[in-house]
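Data card: per-record layout.
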Amino acid sequence: MKSDEIDHGKRRLLTATATALGGVGAVSVAVPFVASMQPSARAQAAGAPIEIDISALRPGELVVHKWRGKPVWVLHRTEEMLASLKTAEEGLTDPQSAGSEQPDYALNRQRSLKPEYLVLVGVCTHLGCSPKFRPEPGDEEIGADWAGGFLCPCHGGRYDLAGRVFKGTPPPKNMAVPPYMYLSDSRLVIGLEEGEV
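The structure for this 197-residue chain is written out next.
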């Protein structure tokens, strides 16, 4: 072969090799760059929906879970607890929850999808303390007219068993109802609503 002849096969091989190596190099640079734009695992966990098994939750019991760094309560209300919601309305600041944070499906007396289950962000709307579950009617410490509910230990905020604030206490509005949905009769997801799955 003469030195001035061009070997086209060798040229194609070298061009293909250089192109492949350049592509691999571009991908190896792009992957970490694109990955850096994704939220961290910690950030995803902080805002990610959580799934809760409520099959073992007996009537009258409350469980606490953490979602977005805040306590979320799931209360399995008894028939007596549900009956107390109507009798409490006269003493409430916003019985219809018109000025409170909640999904549309919680715009009812129970503030829930299913009357027997209450799902609330367990944070007082006054200064952000976490109220205590005080379900016993006529609690001596609170008063004979107490029908059961939630009492904030910081400044005395009082809420009924639907998280609605009583008149004459510091909180400006009812406790928040987070977005949630049922996967089945025994499982619910907090952080998602029907149709977002």
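Known properties of this structure: The two ends are 68 Å apart (CA to CA). The first helix runs from residue 8 to 37.

See the next section for split statistics.
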